[in-house]
Write a structure and sequence with these properties.
CATH topology: Nuclear Transport Factor 2, Chain: A
CATH superfamily: Tgt2/MlaC
Distance between the termini: 10 Å
Helix content: 40-55%
Order of helices and strands: HHHHHHHEEEEEEH
Number of helices: 8
Strand content: 15-25%
Structural class: alpha+beta
CATH class: Alpha Beta
C-alpha cells in the first residue's frame, strides 16, 4: 500500500496502533443533521437527544450493526458500497463536524472566511471518515462497556467507555456538547490521545504558514492521494 501524506499519517499512526483503537474512534464520527451555521429547528427531544449516554449507545449500536452485520453477505448479491459510504448516514446523526473542525483548526478559525470554513468542514469530514473506516477489521463484534458520565459543565459531558476486542481492552472517552438538536460528540480520546489535539498539532503550522488555503490544499491532496492508493 502506498504511503499516505502527512495530514493523515500522524492520526493513523497515533490512533491506529490497532484496528480496534481506530474502530473505537470511528464509532463516534459523524456530521451535523442540520445545515452548517444554521440554527436547528425546534423539535421535541427524544430519549437519546435528552440523555447523552443514550445517544452514545445508539450511535455505537448502529455503527456496529453496519460494520458487523449479523447475517453474512449473499455471494450472489451485488458488491456492497464501501464501508465509509454505508456508515456515513448513521454517523451524521451523532457527531458535529462543525465543532470538531473549528476546534481542530484552533485560533485560526476566527480568521477564516465563511466560505473557507465550509470548505474545510466538508473536506475534513471526508478525510476523517475515509481514514478511520478503513481501519475496521473482520472478526468478532467488539464489546463496549459504558462508565458513569462525568459533567464538565452545564452543556458538556465526558462519556468514558472501554472496548474489549481480541483479548484486549481499550479506553475510549467521548466528549459531547448539548446542541439545539440534542447531544453531539465533538471530540474523542483513544488511549489518552485526543483527536482534536492530534489534528490541531498538524493544522496550526499549516495555518501559520499559509492560512486557510494551506489547510484546504493539504486536505485536498491527502484525499486525492488516498483515493489513488485504494485503486
Amino acid at each position: 500500500m502506498k504511503t499516505r501524506p502527512p495530514i493523515a499519517a500522524r492520526p493513523v499512526a497515533r490512533f491506529g496502533r490497532s484496528g480496534t483503537a481506530a474502530l473505537a474512534l470511528l464509532l463516534a464520527l459523524a456530521s451535523p443533521t442540520v445545515p452548517i451555521f444554521a440554527a436547528a429547528p425546534a423539535t421535541p427531544p427524544s430519549a437519546a437527544a435528552a440523555d447523552p449516554q443514550a445517544m452514545l449507545r445508539g450511535a455505537v449500536d448502529e455503527v456496529l450493526a453496519v460494520a458487523y452485520p449479523e447475517k453474512p453477505a449473499d455471494p450472489a448479491a451485488p458488491a456492497p458500497a464501501p464501508l465509509a459510504e454505508r456508515v456515513r448516514p448513521v454517523l451524521e446523526k451523532y457527531f458535529s463536524f462543525e465543532l470538531l473542525t473549528r476546534s481542530a483548526v484552533g485560533p485560526g478559525w476566527n480568521q477564516t472566511k465563511p466560505d473557507d470554513q465550509k470548505r474545510i468542514i466538508t473536506l475534513f469530514t471526508e478525510l476523517v471518515i475515509r481514514t478511520y473506516s478503513d481501519k475496521f477489521e473482520p472478526g468478532a463484534r467488539p464489546a463496549v462497556t459504558y462508565a458513569k458520565p462525568v459533567e464538565i459543565d452545564a452543556a458538556r459531558r465526558e462519556l468514558p467507555t472501554s472496548i474489549a476486542y481480541a483479548g484486549k481492552t481499550y479506553s475510549v472517552s467521548y466528549r459531547v456538547r448539548q446542541q439545539p438538536e440534542g447531544w453531539r460528540i465533538y471530540d474523542v480520546n483513544v488511549e489518552g490521545v485526543s483527536m482534536v489535539a492530534n489534528y490541531r498539532a498538524q493544522f496550526t503550522p499549516l495555518f501559520d504558514k499559509g492560512g486557510a488555503a494551506a489547510i484546504i490544499t493539504a486536505i485536498e491532496k491527502n484525499i486525492a492521494d488516498y483515493a489513488a492508493a485504494k485503486k
